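Entry 14. Two folds queued back to back today. First construct below, sequence then structure tokens.
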Amino acid sequence: MEELKKAPVTVVLMMLNAIVFLWVEVTGGSQDTLHMVKCGAAFAPLIESGEVYRLFTCMFLHFGMAHLANNMLVLLVLGQRLEPVVGKMRFLIIYLVGGLGGNIFSFLLALGKEEYAVSAGASGAVFAVMGAMIYILVRNRGRIQDLSARQIIIMAAFSLYFGFTSSGVDNAAHVGGMFCGFIVSVLLYHPRRTFPRKIRKVEP
């Protein structure tokens, strides 16, 4: 509980995703593809026709409880460690901009391949947080709290592997989100160098 108090944005994002999920369930069902499209899920032909808001709204929609739970669990694990390090506003920017970047990459790839599917989920944004973690772990010499660089890289590798070996997964959003999260953190995270308060004078 104490750790969550240090990560209020993470908690709010989790609550928002849960509230939206409950609303979708009550109004028609999160497993109903047509209803998900009506609620704002991403679909390349509609985005191309001008409904660009779907690139954002789809980040808060999930296909079923398991989909929501998996994304929120990873967000909880990473968010409560990353947010105190980068700050509330930077964490929110990483999550939203990284997730949006992942969805844009997925959209452009779908147009190029002409393979259209309804897409929704916070995983692009969650992978953006993961990408930011990788960069910041490197900057912090390999550790944030109890997470090491090796652990987060293994987590990222397994997550990507699971996505590429499963059907119905928007892997482009995952890869794009991770890359965008990494880049955004490079731009935003500039830890100050620390110097000793007292410098001892040494005679030559």
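Second construct, same run, same settings:
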Amino acid sequence: METQIETIEAIRHSALLGGLAPEILDKLLECADILDVPAGTTLIRQGQAGDSAFVILAGRLDVVVETALGEVSMAQLGAQQIVGEIAVFTDLPRTATVRATEDTTVLSLGRQALAEVIVQHPDTAFSVIGALGRRINALNTPLALLTLAAQALEREDMDAAALGRMLDSVGDESPFTRSFQKIVHEMQEKNARRHEMEFAARLQQSILPRTLDFGPGSPFHAAAFMRPARDVGGDFYDFFLTADGRAIMVVADVSGKGIPASLFMAVSRTLVRAMVQSVTPLEDALARANAQLEAENEEGLFVTVFVAELHMATGVLRYVNAGHCDGYVLRADGGVQVLSPTGPAVAMIAGKTFAAVEIRLEPGELMFVPSDGVTEAFAADGAMFGEARLSELLAGLSRPDATEALAAVDAAVVAFAAGCEQSDDITCLALSRSAG
């Protein structure tokens, strides 16, 4: 009882409500509730409806705005300050979340009670509006900075120096300053990570062969490209000539996407190349690569590999398809031969052996090997490009060379997806033999 009397006396002498006539204040207190709000309790939740304003009698409340960048502490309010009045006067949802940072006592004023007091005592409206105006004035700069920060976060060309200047411009030690500093530092870190990913993407592309050259006068022509679904990917292709006169071509696809797949991709490419250069026949080289990758593969990743060796003097082509999607040979008579898998993916089964298949690439014929990013490209309606569509497309090509075949397939996939987000890495390699 004594505590309640002290509380009422504090209200009578407060800057916000103390100017009311005694009879009006008594009526207001009859309609109001005095609430104890323990530390950590949420008094107001952003976005919810509200019909009460709260006058802080003792303690402190933290006002935070929930944004896409996280919670931002905008202000801390103490005794004789009012909160929640915007929802009362405008019938709008709560614009912020309010929590008690320590045990706090508040006077809860309902919309109807507050409206009656204002009608009978207009000076109360000026007190409330004045408190609201001071808070809005204090929030103008923080809100402007938050807007700039959000715009900078959305842009792909965030300027770290500009973000630093934004941070310096805050210039005080308010709760908002600490929140804004945290946001700016997170944006700077994100910017740094983005630059690192861009560098990683350039590095990954740089390890792929830029030219696939059989030497002067060769009837063979090869071309390839890799387009990751993210900054970096798990697909790769390779091309190199061996000392004994073989041309080696590889298309591979690591399970997963992003950084883990890209790291496993780099290891797989290096190991497959080393084994093929040092071990013959081709199937034994892949078995060696499988043994090493499977033995040190704690993450359980695997890689599908299509590797072919071309004896340039004869046109004989031996290939191993280790769990990869189908390859294709466009025959001179217009037929399409499918190069199906001859074994499981690499790094999946310990001690696994692989089988090789031998074919001959005649003049005017072409081999095409994609990754499954081609056949698993999706259109806006959810339809998939599919193997049948790819096979039909290849069959309709009229004696193309390798570069023309890649361009035709790539254009068809892009048109089919029609701007939809790329769902998987796309890699293609083509080998053609001139008709002359």
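Quick look at the second one. The longest strand covers residues 246-254. The first helix runs from residue 2 to 12.
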